[in-house]
Structures are given as C-alpha cells and as structure tokens.
Amino acid sequence: MKTETVAMILAGGQGSRLGKLTKHIAKPAVPFGGNYRIIDFALSNCANSGMNDVGVVTQYQPLILNNHVGNGSSWGLNRHNGEATILQPYSSMEGEKFFKGTAHAVFQNIDFIDKKNPKYVMILSGDHIYKMDYQKMLDYHKEQEATLTVGVMPVPWEDASRFGVMNTDKTDRIIEFQEKPENPKSNLASMGIYIFNWDRLKKYLVDNQAKDRQLTDFGHHVIPAYLRNNEAIFAYSFEGYWKDVGTIESLWSANMEFLDPEHELDIRDRNWRVYSNNPNTTPQFLTESAKVTDSMITDGCYISGEVVHSIISHNVKIGKNSSIKDSFVMPNAVIGENVKIEKAIIGEGAQIHDGTEIIGSDDNIEVVGYDEEVGGYTDEN
C-alpha cells in the first residue's frame, strides 16, 4: 500500500547544552509546559496535519522517550492504517551500530521507509516548540516542483550562528547554505524541517554509501550536495511561533511565555490540539495555606505553599511556607517546607529539602537535575 508521505522525527539527540536536565533522558523527552514533553509538538503536528505514518528515530537514553511515544495512540496516529514506529540503531553488515548524523539515521532506516513506499519523506526535529500545518508545506513543495523544501524563518542575528542559514533568490529558491557558520551571511534560518522526494534522496544516500560515506548530516552534507548538483531547493517561510529550546535560558523562557493566555501557540485551540501521553493521576489539591497566582498547576499536585507565575507539572508536592516564583517545576518533584525558589528549572523527580533557597536571575537560570537532591543533612565525615 502506497503512502504519500512518511514523517521521520529525529529524536536521538543528547541535548548537551541542557546540562543536568539531559543527563538521564533524551532532549525530546524533556518535560515542557506542565503536561507535555518536547516531542509532543512534532507528534501533534503530524496528527493534526493528517500525516499518520511516523518513524521516531531514537538513540541517546531512549527508554523514557520510547515508553512515552509507544505506537502513537496518544496522538491518534494509530488510526487510518497509520502508527508511530520507534526506530533505534542496529548492527548492519558493515558493523555500524550508532547513527553518525541525521542523514545517516535516515539511511539506516531505508527499509522502514521503503515498506511504506512514499513519494515524499518529511524530516522533522523532535526538539522544537511550535504548531505547524505540514500539509501546507507539502502543497508548496508540489507547487514549486521541488526536490527539497526547507522550512525557514528569520532569527535574531546574534543567534544565527546556531542554525543552518541560507540565501534565496526572488523565487525563494535557495542559492546558498551555511551550516552553523561562525560569521553568518544571513539570518534566514533552517527550522530543521525538510521535505524530500524520496526516490531522489534515496539515490543520494545509497550512491554515497557505496562510495565515500560522506553524506552523514543533512545540514553539513546533503543540502550542499543538492546545491552542487543544481537541485530544485526551495525555502518555505513559516510565520508562527517556533522555538529551539536547546539551552537552559531558551527552555526557561519558552515555559514562561507559555503562561501567557494570549500566547501564539494557543494551547486551548480545540482545532489544533497538542496531545501527550499523560499519567492517570489524582486531581490537584490546594491546602488552606496555598496561594496560587498567574500559574499552571497540573493534576496530582499537592500545594501547601505559594506559587507565582510558574508552571508546576503533575505529581509535584510543595510544602508549607515555600515560595515558587518565575520557575518551571518538572513532574514528580518534591519541595519541602520553607523553601524559596526563583527563576529556576527543577528537574523531574528532584527533591528539595526544607529551608533550601534556589535563586536565579534572567541571565543565570538555576537548574536542579533529574532525580537530584538539594539541601538537607549531609555527613561530611
């Protein structure tokens, strides 16, 4: 049975710039916004765009991510003959086990894609926060008769060196591409969203693998190869909210922006829902001493302190006389009594003992890692 488009979500990255938050879990599995994990946005976009054949390519610390995604039923991807399939590295005849880059990850999964027999393959990053109708980008790809279409948007010049940047002509055809340049010539950045004609991309990957095996990454190798061969490469401009949450500061600020009821993501939009695989837990409980202002409190929480302009994820406990301000607390964290937390990210399963202070600033967000324990009695002998 032929599928028009297969979506491949690349979710194997470590996310080293997130430091302690990704020591035990992959970056796409990092909690976000109280009820979600980062990968939920790409998965929900696929579901809402009618793209139900999804491969999720994992590698680094995949257990939590694999359990979270499952077969995609939480996003409705298992309907209409579709599903989400977890794709992990494996030993090949050449002895290769781990993915060497984004393009190599797709090459190792050619058999999976060929079984779907698609005309197009959409490559997505699993670590960005955004809503996007992929069908509109696919329609554009067809109209332009492109062999490759790249989702793009302008970024601040000071951030441009973190991205692949490009120049286009008057028809939006890409004529120059730089991958994370030290001195960028443009601030038109790749969003890490690509649509390829599958037969063409497959030929590039297979032919190169038989030769010098240099096409391991889309940004560094495949796009430049397409440019050298004068392929029809076009830029698709995206004008909505999109954020790469690859640093502590960007992850914190994205969560703080998420608190705005007028936020561009419009999380309450019933026509474009963001789905997740959430635990079945108890309702939240606020004690008589609890005080909550301008915050999101999710299910399973026990709040006996003060919460101001913060996101409190599911199954978090906050003790008496504790104060949480301008912070994001991930699931299952336990915060004791008389604790003060400001401008911080508290990792999943962390324990903050009585009387502890964790105070950050706009330029230095404090971070407590996954299952980390802070404060309390320590025996130094």
Describe what is shown at a glance.
With 381 residues, the protein is an alpha/beta fold.
Tell me the layout of helices and strands.
Layout: E1 5-10, E2 31-32, E3 36-37, H1 40-48, E4 53-57, H2 63-69, E5 83-87, H3 102-107, H4 110-116, E6 120-125, E7 128-130, H5 134-143, E8 148-154, E9 164-168, E10 174-179, E11 188-197, H6 198-210, H7 218-228, E12 233-237, E13 242-244, H8 248-258, E14 285-286, E15 291-293, E16 296-297, E17 302-303, E18 306-308, E19 311-312, E20 317-318, E21 323-325, E22 328-329, E23 334-335, E24 340-342, E25 344-346, E26 351-352, E27 357-359, E28 366-368, E29 373-374
Parallel strand pairs: 1-4, 1-6, 4-5, 8-12, 14-17, 15-18, 16-19, 17-20, 18-21, 19-22, 20-23, 21-24, 22-25, 23-26, 24-27, 25-28, 26-29
Antiparallel strand pairs: 2-3, 6-11, 7-13, 8-11, 9-10
The level of helicity is: 10-25%
pLDDT < 50 runs, ≥5 residues: none
**Distance separating the two termini:** 68 Å
- Roughly how many Å is the radius of gyration? 22 Å
Per CATH, what is the topology of the largest domain? Spore Coat Polysaccharide Biosynthesis Protein SpsA, Chain A
Mean pLDDT: 91
Largest sheet composition: 7 strands, mixed
The number of strands is 29
CATH-defined superfamily of the largest domain = Spore Coat Polysaccharide Biosynthesis Protein SpsA, Chain A
Q: What CATH architecture of the largest domain would you give?
A: Alpha-Beta Complex
Number of helices: 8
- Write down the CATH class of the largest domain: Alpha Beta
